[in-house]
Design brief:
This protein has 391 residues and is an all-alpha fold. It has one domain (18-390). Helices cover 63% and strands 3% of the residues. The chain has helices at residues 18-40, 57-66, 69-88, 91-118, 130-144, 149-162, 178-184, 208-219, 230-254, 269-276, 286-305, 308-319, 321-344, 355-382, and strands at residues 125-128, 189-191, 200-203. β2 (189-191) and β3 form a beta hairpin. α13 crosses α14 (355-382).
C-alpha cells in the first residue's frame, strides 16, 4: 500500500500516484453503498431512470452518488493505461497488456462475478455489467491508442457527446443487427445456444459510450507525466471539470439534446431537483457523462491538494480495486444468506428497513474489506507473479 503523502510533484516511474488511488478508493466506497442497497434493501430496488413518484429522496440521492462510480472508474482505467505505457516507454507493450487484461475481465464477468451475484452455477440469466464493459473498452483502447493523441481525444468527445444521436436506431430481436446493437448501444437479451442449459445474457452496460470514456482517460494521461508540473495538472483538472459541469447545466436546463429523459418542474423544489438530476445511465447519456466526469475531475483535483494523512484510508481500496470488487460481492451475498439462515431458518435474502441502515451497514462492511485490501496491496508490491498484475 502506498505510504507517501499525496503526490505534489512528478512521481518516479515506480511510484503510484496517490491522488488517483484515493479517487479510485472513494468511488469504490460509493459502489459498496450501492451494492449494499442491491443486496440488503430488497423492498425498494430502483430502476434507471428512477421512478420519482415512488422513490424517496434519501434513496434517490444514494443512487445518484453511485452514478459517479462507473464513469470515474472507466476514465481512471484509461489514465492508468497511459501511465503504464509511459513507464514502459512502449505503446505496443501497453496495447498488448490492455488486450490481454480486457479478455481476462470479460471471462471474469461471465464466471466469477456472475456467480457472486447469483450463487448459481447454471443461471438462467447472465448480467454483463461494468467489468464486461471495462474489459471490452480496454480491448478497444488497445487498438485505438496508436492514433495521434489529438485524434484520440476528438474521437472520445465525439463518442461521449454524440452517441445520443443514435438513440432513434433500434433493432427487433429477429433482425440481423440486434446482437451487435445490444452490445454497443441498447440494452438487450442475447441468446446463448452454446450453453448446455437454457440461458440468456443481459447487456446491462452498452459499450459505445464507455469506449469514449476510457479514451478520454488515456488522452489526459500526459497531464500526469513524470515531467509535468503538478500545479499545471491541478488547474487543468479544475478547468475541465468546470467546463463539463457548466455544459451539463446548459444542456440539461434547455431540456433538449443530451438526455432521453426530460426533466419537469414538480410540485415541490425537491421533486424538481430530483427530476433535473434523474439521468440515464444505460447507456450513459451525454448529460450523465458531463456531470459525472466533471465532478470526477474536480474530486481528483481536490485529492491532489488533500494532505496524505487525510487520504490514507482511501489508498488501500484504490490500490486493489479488482480484488475489492470480487471480495465485496461475495461478502455481501454470503453475509445476507447467513443472516437469513440464522433469522428465518432458510437461506432467503433479508432486507434492512431504511436507507440510513444501508449506509451504516456499508460502513461496517468496509472495515474488514479495508484490512483485506491493505494486505493484498502489500502482497502486490512484494510478489511479481503474472496473475497479481491482473488484480
Amino acid at each position: 500500500m502506498p505510504t507517501s503523502s499525496v503526490a505534489r510533484s512528478a512521481p518516479s516511474p515506480s511510484t503510484r500516484i496517490a491522488s488517483i488511488d484515493a479517487l479510485r478508493g472513494l468511488v469504490i466506497l460509493l459502489m459498496l453503498v450501492d451494492h449494499t442497497r442491491e443486496f440488503f434493501f430488497l423492498r425498494a430496488q430502483v430502476g434507471d431512470p428512477m421512478d420519482l413518484s415512488t422513490t424517496e429522496p434519501a434513496l434517490f440521492f444514494t443512487r445518484l452518488t453511485s452514478h459517479l462510480c462507473a464513469p470515474i472508474f472507466v476514465a481512471l482505467t484509461g489514465l492508468a493505461a497511459y501511465i503504464y505505457a509511459d513507464r514502459k516507454g512502449s505503446t505496443r507493450e501497453a496495447s498488448a497488456f490492455l488486450f490481454k487484461r480486457g479478455l481476462f475481465l470479460i471471462i471474469l464477468e461471465w464466471t466469477v462475478i456472475n456467480f457472486a451475484w447469483t450463487f448459481d452455477l447454471t443461471p438462467k440469466l447472465f448480467y454483463l455489467q461494468v467489468i464486461w464493459a471495462i474489459g471490452l473498452s480496454m480491448i478497444a483502447l488497445s487498438l485505438l491508442l496508436h492514433l495521434p493523441r489529438r485524434w484520440l481525444i476528438a474521437l472520445a468527445i465525439l463518442i461521449m457527446l454524440g452517441h445520443n444521436l443514435l438513440d432513434a436506431i433500434s433493432f427487433e430481436k429477429s433482425e440481423w443487427g440486434y446482437t451487435v446493437w445490444s452490445i454497443l448501444h441498447d440494452r438487450g437479451y442475447l441468446s446463448l445456444p452454446w450453453l448446455p442449459w437454457d440461458a440468456q445474457a443481459r447487456t446491462s452496460y452498452p459499450l459505445l459510450p464507455w469506449i469514449g470514456v476510457i479514451m478520454i482517460g488515456y488522452g489526459i494521461g500526459p497531464w500526469f507525466a513524470r515531467n509535468r508540473p503538478a500545479q499545471q495538472r491541478f488547474y487543468r483538472l479544475v478547468t475541465s471539470g468546470a467546463i463539463c459541469i457548466g455544459l451539463f447545466l446548459v444542456l440539461r436546463g434547455a431540456n433538449g439534446y443530451g438526455e432521453t429523459q426530460p426533466w419537469q418542474a414538480g410540485d415541490t423544489f425537491m421533486l424538481s431537483l430530483m427530476s433535473f438530476f434523474n439521468l440515464t445511465k444505460y447507456p450513459p447519456s451525454a448529460d450523465f457523462l458531463l456531470l459525472t466526469l466533471g465532478v470526477g475531475a474536480l474530486l481528483l483535483a481536490a485529492l491532489e491538494r488533500l494532505p496524505g494523512t487525510a487520504s490514507q484510508w482511501l489508498l488501500a481500496f484504490g490500490a486493489a480495486p479488482l480484488f475489492f470488487y470480487i471480495l465485496h460481492l461475495y461478502f455481501l451475498h454470503a453475509l445476507n444468506r447467513m443472516i437469513g439462515a440464522t433469522l428465518t431458518n432458510d437461506s432467503g435474502l433479508i432486507s434492512v428497513p431504511n436507507v440510513p441502515s444501508v449506509w451504516l451497514l456499508a460502513i461496517i462492511i468496509a472495515i474488514p474489506c479495508w484490512f483485506a485490501c491493505r494486505w493484498f496491496a502489500r502482497y502486490k508490491q512484494t510478489h511479481k507473479k503474472w496473475w497479481v498484475s491482473y488484480l
